[in-house]
């Protein structure tokens, strides 16, 4: 039964009001900031260019982005550059702690009680849910990347076309029976919290901090069974103060390295259903920087 309900949930089409999700808010050292205060907003509705495997190029606020949409949309969300100049830059110290929060509620329905009255100090919640739970409707890894604005460039003018270094990922745990449990998705129940540090070794400068949850595409070689991967990117603008003297390690480029065939971006039908992990599965988004070294970002089994 559990399996059956999982399959049904994966194929449900959510209502427009609570369709999909967007990361909209961050806490700095435990203190929640206003929604979109340091995070570039999105434009809705927004017309993406025509993309394969998607029948609707007009996207609303919480809709997914596909890897073949405009590169800017894949990097930091739909029309984000139009909002960059009006978005504040959060001043942090290397080593500071960030928490992020998402919402599934459309901006036209945003109300204070879904940000400021949430149980247990969470940064977002759904007052219409009996448990105030702000859930996710898709499984997949949650990722955070940093991209440094080129020297002399204001981060509010930076489009993210440089390299991106992964500093955090939250994937799945393995159940005793070999099935997998995505920690953000949690079967549409209360998600894990997303708390991570800006590595102490991060060089001083202005950065984009990219937040995403990727629903990998379903791949049954040699053909796609379902849609391409779904991406839910937003970017915060931060200024990192730091005494670090080392360089930032090599990162990935977006969208080139978040494509349909790059590691982690697609799974077998069995993994899609949560029944098992594909051999050698690696989370998407490149290597993970611990601050000390770059490591392969594989599930901990
Ligand atoms: C963010 O964008 C949404 C949708 O375009 C809009 O409704 C909302 O007012 C914007 N928020 C801010 C703070 O600009
Ligand atoms: C993504 O992969 C497709 C198919 O291999 C390719 O045509 C496309 O150019 C790639 N996109 C990017 C941005 O690299
Ligand atoms: Cu979706």
From TrEMBL:
Entry cofactors: Cu(2+)
Catalytic activity entry: [(1->4)-beta-D-glucosyl]n+m + reduced acceptor + O2 = 4-dehydro-beta-D-glucosyl-[(1->4)-beta-D-glucosyl]n-1 + [(1->4)-beta-D-glucosyl]m + acceptor + H2O
GO aspect biological process, one term: cellulose catabolic process
GO cellular component labels: extracellular region
Signal peptide residue numbers: 1-19
Location relative to the cell: Secreted
EC number: 1.14.99.56
Main location as per UniProt: secreted
Enzyme class: oxidoreductase
Keywords: Carbohydrate metabolism, Cellulose degradation, Copper, Disulfide bond, Metal-binding, Monooxygenase, Oxidoreductase, Polysaccharide degradation, Secreted, Signal
Gene3D superfamilies named in the record: 2.70.50.70
InterPro entries, alphabetized: AA9, AA9_LPMO
Molecular function as annotated in GO: metal ion binding; monooxygenase activity
Protein family according to the UniProt entry: Belongs to the polysaccharide monooxygenase AA9 family.
Designated name of the protein: lytic cellulose monooxygenase (C4-dehydrogenating)
């Amino acid at each position: 039964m559990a399996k059956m309900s999982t399959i049904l949930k994966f194929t449900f089409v959510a209502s427009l009001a609570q369709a999909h999700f967007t990361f909209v808010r961050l806490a700095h050292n435990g203190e929640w900031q206003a929604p979109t205060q340091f995070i570039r907003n999105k434009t809705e509705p927004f017309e993406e260019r025509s993309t394969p495997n998607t029948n609707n190029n007009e996207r609303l606020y919480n809709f997914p982005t596909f890897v073949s949409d405009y590169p800017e949309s894949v990097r930091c969300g739909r029309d984000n550059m139009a909002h960059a100049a009006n978005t504040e830059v959060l001043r942090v110290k290397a080593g500071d702690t960030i928490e992020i929060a998402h919402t599934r509620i459309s901006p036209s329905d945003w109300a204070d009680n879904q940000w400021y009255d949430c149980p247990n100090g969470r940064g977002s919640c759904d007052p219409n849910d009996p448990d105030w739970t702000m859930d996710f409707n898709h499984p997949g890894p949650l990722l955070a990347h940093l991209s440094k604005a080129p020297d002399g460039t204001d981060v509010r003018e930076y489009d993210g076309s440089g390299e991106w270094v992964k500093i955090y990922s939250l994937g799945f745990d393995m159940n005793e029976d070999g099935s997998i449990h995505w920690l953000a998705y949690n079967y549409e129940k209360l998600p894990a919290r997303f708390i991570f540090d800006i590595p102490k070794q991060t060089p001083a400068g202005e950065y984009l901090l990219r937040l995403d949850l990727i629903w990998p595409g379903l791949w049954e070689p040699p053909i796609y069974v379902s849609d391409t991967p779904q991406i839910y990117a937003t970017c915060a603008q931060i200024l990192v103060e730091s005494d670090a003297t080392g360089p930032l390690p090599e990162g990935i480029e977006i969208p080139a390295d978040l494509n349909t065939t790059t590691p982690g971006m697609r799974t077998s039908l069995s993994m899609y259903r949560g029944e098992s992990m594909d051999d050698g599965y690696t989370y998407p988004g490149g290597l993970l920087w611990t601050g000390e070294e770059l490591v392969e970002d594989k599930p901990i089994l």
